[in-house]
Amino acid sequence: MSRRIADPKSFGRVAVLMGGTSAEREVSLKSGAAVHAALERRGVETVAIDAGEQVIRQIEQSGCDRVFIALHGRGGEDGVIQGALETMGMPYTGSGVLASALGMDKLRTKRIWQGAGLPTPDCAQLNDGFDAEDIVARLGLPLIIKPVHEGSSIGMSKVDTADALETAWRQAARYDSEVIAEQWIDGNEYTVAIVAAEALPAICLQTPHSFYDYAAKYQADTTEYLCPCGLGQGDEQMLQRLAQQAFDAVGAWGWGRVDAMRDRHGQYWLIEVNTIPGMTDHSLVPMAARAAGIDFDELVWRILESSYGQE
User: Fold this and answer.
1) Could you say which of 20, 24, 31, 94 is catalytic?
2) Is 278 a known active-site residue?
3) Residue 158: which H helix or E strand, with range?
4) Sequence-separated (6 or more) residues with CB below 8 Å from residue 85
5) Tens digits of per-residue pLDDT, 92-150?
6) Is 218 a catalytic residue?
7) Residue of 2, 259, 268, 302 marked active site
8) 259 is a catalytic site residue
């Protein structure tokens, strides 16, 4: 549980890091702007920083006392900025170096979950010269192809034939040198937000797209977000417990989101953990918070309180 703070002055001056140079820059700018506005409404002294190549100097020159990280993707969500802030002795929101690095690495996260006995779809790493028929024989069809270190479904695609694997791998490899093929789970997709050690109500995601891709997340008006999610109380509680176990297994802290699938037999499968999820008008953590009676400004406040866990 994060330390509870009543006086906005107790936070000191807060720098909101946003933007950056990753493939998720545009989403991060929207998240950061929303967070910055929420903190101002709550009376917190804050400064917005579009994190560039001289981000450490930007932070030092801002005169801030702590940092709210609203960066998505590499350089912001993968432990890099967290390590720099640790070296500076600067408190920051969310998970530390290790959990951030793991959360950004789909392959190593899956291996940790497997080692902990948590259910996650099997996968295979795709290297130059891989045998498509061998991959299909092992994992079946269809498959979902993913860059290991990207978020927001960037570079992901579904393949239905062995012949399509090569093209999908090349597309994913444009974003990352490490690519995986993952078993396809046929069923509903759910996400569980975790804030201050509390699992919020689950959201069921439904899209006419073949999967919940970048367009479905940030651009489409056809994506449906069901909250209540349609599960019975016992099934939803089971999903929330599994999400908390998955979150804890990688050492995540403060806030985040765990994505999962439920197959036609009722089995849950963990997909990934997000240590700095989106905070835009399309984002899922604010949606789950509203269902729990937590408005956006209060959500941002509680996330900022997690910065005391780093002191």
Assistant:
1) 24
2) yes
3) strand 157-159
4) 59, 67, 91, 92, 310
5) 999 999 999 999 999 999 999 999 999 999 999 999 899 999 999 999 999 999 999 87
6) yes
7) 259
8) yes
